[in-house]
């Protein structure tokens, strides 16, 4: 009896194991897949460009002529209005320069008068020499020398020198009335390159003002992209340092490439909220190759063999291979031009482990 019971227990265990193995075998006969319902969508290529922020207006403020700075009224970061006094020149120093300029002007006029008298004498002499030359009394070389001395070229040069000296004198004289150097525009002081008592010159602008109301974003695009963007196109600008991310409009697209970079310059003008500073870096998101209402699947769903592209479609519990023709590839989605119908259940995960006709089980997807 004990042997009989033991035998029954062994048979039960064996039968239980067999049924479990059968279930496992049956379960392993299916491949779990994820599907996505094919539908129409808008496709585009997103191009991320690196750009730099520039002041929309960047003005160098310099005095009419070099001179000592007596007082500076601003510092970097100050907001100024048009015609605010930025710095004051030393009038005593300007007066000295006015006198020097006047002296140079008078000397130039005197030099012109001397030249004019000398040339008139040379002209009178030339008429005599010319007559003698025509009579054969003197050689040609002497004639040419007299002709050259009578030329008005030297007088014209002296006249130009007088005009330059006159302009310099008038500029120096006007400095007395413009000893207070004013802001030509409203904005923010971006640099002060002078200290009180130092000489201000045009070679090193003492003060720079930037327009704080608007800024310009500039970046370059390659030749294969420039014809895909246009003035007035909408883009997204992101400036991390200013916590700024908004849509903007392209202001201009250059028609010729930069000789150094071989890129075409694109600019965008933004209203400044006060946080955006010249010199910051930005990202510009450009959407090109836009295609509306087209069928598309995830790029990884499309497989290729012998230059033929295909996808697997879930039909009941089987995978069906379908040859497709593709179009625009955005990197995430790829356009399907033919081979599929809207509403098809395209296998987007698990497709690497099946073949045409494989048994499948949809575990995720629409």
From TrEMBL:
Residues 1-22 form the signal peptide. InterPro entries: BSH_CzcB-like, RND_pump_MFP, YknX-like_C. Transmembrane segments: none annotated. Residues 297-362 form the YknX-like C-terminal permuted SH3-like domain. The keyword Signal applies. Residues 60-208 form the CzcB-like barrel-sandwich hybrid domain. GO terms for molecular function: efflux transmembrane transporter activity. PANTHER family: HLYD FAMILY OF SECRETION PROTEINS, MULTIDRUG RESISTANCE PROTEIN MDTA. Belongs to the membrane fusion protein (MFP) (TC 8.A.1) family. This is Efflux RND transporter periplasmic adaptor subunit. It comes from Sedimentibacter hydroxybenzoicus DSM 7310. The lineage of its organism: Bacteria, Bacillati, Bacillota, Tissierellia, Sedimentibacter.
């Amino acid at each position: 009896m004990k042997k009989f019971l033991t035998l029954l227990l062994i048979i039960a265990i064996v039968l239980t194991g067999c049924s479990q193995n059968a279930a496992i075998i049956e379960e392993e006969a299916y491949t779990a897949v994820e599907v996505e319902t094919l539908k129409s969508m808008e496709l585009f290529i997103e191009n991320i460009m690196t750009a730099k922020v520039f002041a929309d207006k960047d003005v160098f403020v310099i005095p009419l002529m070099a001179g000592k700075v007596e007082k500076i009224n601003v510092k970097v970061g100050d907001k100024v209005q048009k015609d605010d006094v930025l710095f004051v020149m030393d009038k005593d120093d300007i007066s000295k320069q006015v006198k020097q300029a006047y002296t140079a002007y008078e000397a130039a006029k005197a030099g012109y008068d001397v030249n004019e008298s000398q040339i008139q004498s040379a002209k009178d002499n030339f008429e005599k020499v010319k007559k003698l030359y025509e009579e054969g009394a003197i050689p040609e070389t002497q004639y040419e020398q007299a002709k050259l001395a009578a030329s008005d070229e030297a007088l014209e040069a002296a006249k130009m020198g007088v005009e330059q000296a006159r302009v310099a004198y008038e500029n120096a004289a006007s400095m007395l009335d413009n000893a207070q150097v004013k802001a030509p525009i409203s904005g923010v002081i971006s640099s002060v390159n002078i200290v009180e008592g130092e000489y201000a010159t045009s070679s090193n602008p003492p003060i720079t003002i930037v327009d704080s109301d608007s800024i310009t974003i500039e970046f370059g695009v390659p030749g294969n992209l420039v014809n895909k963007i246009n003035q007035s196109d909408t883009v997204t600008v992101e400036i991390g340092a200013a916590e700024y991310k908004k849509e903007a409009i392209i202001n201009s697209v250059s028609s010729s490439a930069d000789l150094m970079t071989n890129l075409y310059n694109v600019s965008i003008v933004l209203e400044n909220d006060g946080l955006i500073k010249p010199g910051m870096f930005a990202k510009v998101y450009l959407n090109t190759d836009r295609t509306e209402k087209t069928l598309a699947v995830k790029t990884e769903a499309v497989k290729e063999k012998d230059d033929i592209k295909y996808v697997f479609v879930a039909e009941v519990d089987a995978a069906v291979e379908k040859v497709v023709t593709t179009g625009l590839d955005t990197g995430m989605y790829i356009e399907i031009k033919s081979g599929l119908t809207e509403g098809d259940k395209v296998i987007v995960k698990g497709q690497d482990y099946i073949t045409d006709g494989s048994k499948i089980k949809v575990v995720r997807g629409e």
